[in-house]
Amino acid sequence: MKKQNQKAWFLVAPVVLLVAFNALVPLMTVVNYSVQETFGNNQFFWHGLGWFVDILHSERFHAALGRQLMFTGIILVIEIPLGVAIALCMPKKGFWVPVCLVLMALPLLIPWNVVGAMWNIFTLPDIGLMGYSLNAIGIDYNMTRSPIAAWATMVLMDVWHWTSLVVLLAYAGLTSIPDAYYQAAKIDGAKRWAVFRYIQLPKLKQVLTIAILLRFMDSFMIYTEPFVLTGGGPGNSTTLLSIDLVKVALGQFDLGPAAAMSLIYFSITLLVSWVFYTLMTKDDPE
Predict the structure, then answer these.
(1) DSSP letters for 58-71
(2) Which residues contact 65 (CB under 8 A, 6 or more apart)?
(3) Burial of 152 from C-beta contacts in 10 A (0-12 / 13-18 / 19+)
(4) Distance separating alpha carbons of residues 240 and 206, to the nearest angstrom
(5) Is 203 in contact with 177 (CB distance < 8 Å)?
(6) With 251 labelled, which of 53, 94, 178, 200 sits at a CA distance of 20 to 30 A?
(7) CA distance 36 to 27
(8) Residue 43 burial (C-beta neighbours within 10 Å; 0-12, 13-18, 19+)
């Protein structure tokens, strides 16, 4: 039996320690603030779990969490099937393959704050192409006054920005399927739907697991795009959990409640991601 060489870990260890240090220091700072109260002048007093109890019983937190879960659910339901459908329609060989891949990757290269600003201008009812066109054909569209319009715009912006990630992942999974499967299906006279259901979809399971986890975590922690687009308005209709957290931490400068909220926020993200992964991989062979 060949003996494995583990010396490579000595080269990786410094990087692992550096990343762990950079992650632990901010986390311990947040934990420290979450159990303390301050009245200014850099004087802190022990508060225990009081902030956690207040946050968990706060209607404001529940409302923001509900909006966050609804937003995440909507974009997952739209982006995952849409991304797979686009990947299935893309060519597998020829000149158009690199062209399609580049076009799909373009939205992912745009900075998040630019995406929000771009869609904000695009949807202005007076000068924006989308906003002006919708009002011109008789649709009363103004996302600064209508929560429905604000939500529709926010979802549309996220779909435009992030569906490409699902497309690229699904396309990579599809191109890795051996041609022997398709040849066998052709010999058996399988229809297009049967090929997708019994060959492509099972082979995409691992890729789709990654896509769902990435999109869930990204959408659950999204901040820049919706904040630049709507600022959480009109009213609090688009104030997601991340926007509410920043308002508490920086707007109100309540460090204790903000730290407790961020830890609860982190725990929810971690728990739901673990549940997703467990459910989607429970039938996989060891």
Answers:
(1) -HHHHHHHHHHHHH
(2) 241, 268
(3) middle
(4) 29
(5) yes
(6) 53
(7) 15
(8) exposed
